[in-house]
Write a structure and sequence with these properties.
Largest sheet: 5 strands, antiparallel
Shape: globular
Radius of gyration: 24 Å
Strand content: 25-35%
Order of helices and strands: HEHEEEHEHEEEHE
Distance between the termini: 89 Å
Number of strands: 9
Number of domains: 2
Strand order of the largest sheet: 5-8-7-6-9
Number of helices: 5
Length: 215
């Protein structure tokens, strides 16, 4: 075989090897995805991290990285897009390369603990109903009611009851930052100790904790 023929043969063999390696890698990726669940985008802090007290403007948000991670490894409250962080303020330093979570951020002008009064403290609760609040124009500083719906027990159906009334809403994470597909977000509420204990317990046993705007 001529030198040119041998070179052509090596080239064809290299191309076939590359195609085979790509197929193997794709098959491996598909097996990983099927084993750990579908991939979900998550926002990662830039290499320099995020500083507390400084609002995330569009320029800072442009430096946030988006990675795709198997759903089972996504921590609760992980942001899915940099736009969800725009206008919010880190509560504490967010290290570079770490996931950006809704609970790490707060709206600007977040009320201080001392302004709550009445023995109330800021407490984060995973809730549904944020869409209804937005539609009603209910934002931070407004009062909301908190409703708990329990899981059915045996032949008896679950029950829904009013767990807390006229609770100050201090802020909530952007739509979509909570558990994917469930409409769950983290709401920061001004709660008394008894209300906080009651609602934290409800998070573990209830089917849903919902915030609704007051009339």
């Amino acid at each position: 075989m001529s030198r040119r023929g041998r070179a052509a043969g090596f080239l064809v063999a290299a191309l076939l090897a590359a195609i085979g390696a790509g197929a193997v890698a794709q098959g491996y990726g598909e097996r990983i995805a099927s084993g750990y669940g579908r991939l979900r985008p998550v926002v990662v802090a830039p290499s320099g991290g995020l500083s507390p007290g400084h609002p995330i403007d569009p320029e800072v948000a442009a430096g946030l990285e988006v990675r795709r991670v198997p759903l089972r490894f996504v921590p609760p409250g992980a942001l899915a897009a940099p736009a969800e962080a725009v206008g919010l303020v880190p509560r504490a330093p967010v290290p570079g390369g770490s996931y950006v979570l809704a609970g790490q951020l707060r709206p600007p002008g977040h009320p201080r603990r001392s302004r709550l009064g009445g023995g109330r403290r800021p407490v984060e609760i995973a809730v549904s109903g944020a869409g209804a609040l937005a539609a009603a124009g209910t934002g931070p500083g407004s009062l909301v009611d908190v409703v708990v719906t329990t899981e059915p027990s045996g032949s008896a159906g679950g029950r829904t009851y009013l767990a807390a009334t006229a609770v100050p809403l201090l802020g909530f994470a952007p739509e979509g930052a909570g558990s994917e597909g469930e409409g769950i977000v983290l709401a920061t509420l001004g709660l008394t100790r008894s209300q906080a204990l009651r609602l934290i317990a409800a998070e573990s046993f209830a089917r849903r904790v919902t915030v609704i705007p007051r009339p």
